[in-house]
Specification:
His-Me finger endonuclease fold; single chain; 2 strands; globular
């Protein structure tokens, strides 16, 4: 996606409403480290999934978002999926 198309998508009112719902669902905390999460992350990258479904979105703080995106770029899908599974385990323990 180009920067222009990304900018257009994130300024769409439907996307803004969806991000509010995801932040509320995730208690506005980072899925990985539990800091305040300010960014929305596609678990399966949008370029592959073309999905903005809520079950494909999580909140992340900027630091974790950058690390996870870098990990995906550096190591590919397998390690990225492991990272997301670990995020889910952390979240499940926190929500118990």
């Amino acid at each position: 996606m180009t920067k222009e198309s990304i900018s257009k998508r994130i300024s769409d009112p439907a996307w803004k409403e969806l991000t509010k719902l995801i932040r509320k669902r995730d208690k506005n905390t980072c899925y990985k480290c539990n800091k305040k999460g300010l960014q929305i992350h596609h678990i399966i990258p949008f370029k592959f999934s073309k999905s903005d479904r809520p079950d494909n979105l999580i909140t992340l703080c900027q630091s974790c978002h950058t690390k996870i995106d870098h990990e995906y770029s550096r190591t590919g899908k397998t390690n990225y999926i492991r990272q997301m599974i670990n995020c889910a385990k952390v979240r499940n323990r926190r929500d118990e």
